[in-house]
Amino acid sequence: NRKVIIDTDPGLDDAVAILFGLASDRFKVLGLTTVAGNIGLARTTANAGGLLAAMGRSDIPVVAGASGPLRRKTIDAAEIHGNDGLGGVTLPAAAPLLSDDAVDWMAETLLSEPSGSIDILALGPLTNVAQLIETHPQAASRIGHLIVMGGAIVEKGNAGPTSEFNFAADPEATALVLASGVRTTLIPLDVTRRIRADRDYVEGLRGTVAGDTAAALLTAYVQDEKTSRPLHDPCVMVLALAPELFGVDSYRLSVNVSDDTDAGGLIQDEAGSPVSVAMRVDAAGVLALLAEGLR
Ligand code: BDR
Ligand code: CA
């Protein structure tokens, strides 16, 4: 099984991704590192701890990281995820924090295991990962695979005209990570918008603690019988386990780091960094694997 650190801002779809990761014996989750994103850092950290408690896995550390982007004002997505980040769903109280220095903790963890044996699954703004690369380059060079939910290539954005929320929340961190040379695969909105949960799908998850908790969270997210909503972050977990469900293309990308309304948008650019991007997906296969893992 794959050793992973999940860097996250739960967040309803983050929460489902984490539950899937904890429910699957094909992952060894070494820790959850938290970042401000969908909601502020105190909430994302408490939510991460609550998910571990719900799963009886409070032995896994939660380590808090950045409370805001490298160089900008913090934005959030409370209108989608609620003021608590979890759509009002209550989880058990979390165990006390191990420490609040996610970047140092990631570095120590990467240095204590064989090089290349740990993947980082990045489900939120890339602030922590960028700081890791900047301040602990040797540790960062030991990352096996960095899989990132973020960006939009052909699809329109969900934060600005072409910018996606995670990248818009910290454009400078995104630029630093993409230029770093760390082996990275992006999963942009082009793929995640095709992985959709509706009420029937959500009801079909029930039957285990992970499935019941995911169903409660997704009921808050899907809202009514007629809508379906994208499962962005769970795609990262699935790509780590079943890359054959995705088609990956190479792009050269740079990041809009201006102050305009599309900051964080990706620009296809010959002078940009080479990045692998998941652009095609077997949507039915991804949804089936997620449901199977959760229940
Ligand atoms: C991303 O932004 C967040 O709101 C979601 O959790 C996901 O990581 C989608 O753009
Ligand atoms: Ca997220």
Automatic annotation (TrEMBL):
<protein>
    <submittedName>
        <fullName>Nucleoside hydrolase</fullName>
    </submittedName>
</protein>
<dbReference type="GO" id="GO:0016787">
    <property type="term" value="F:hydrolase activity"/>
</dbReference>
<keyword id="KW-0326">Glycosidase</keyword>
<feature type="domain" description="Inosine/uridine-preferring nucleoside hydrolase">
    <location>
        <begin position="4"/>
        <end position="286"/>
    </location>
</feature>
<dbReference type="InterPro" id="IPR036452">
    <property type="entry name" value="Ribo_hydro-like"/>
</dbReference>
<dbReference type="InterPro" id="IPR001910">
    <property type="entry name" value="Inosine/uridine_hydrolase_dom"/>
</dbReference>
<dbReference type="Pfam" id="PF01156">
    <property type="entry name" value="IU_nuc_hydro"/>
</dbReference>
<dbReference type="InterPro" id="IPR015910">
    <property type="entry name" value="I/U_nuclsd_hydro_CS"/>
</dbReference>
<keyword id="KW-0378">Hydrolase</keyword>
<dbReference type="InterPro" id="IPR023186">
    <property type="entry name" value="IUNH"/>
</dbReference>
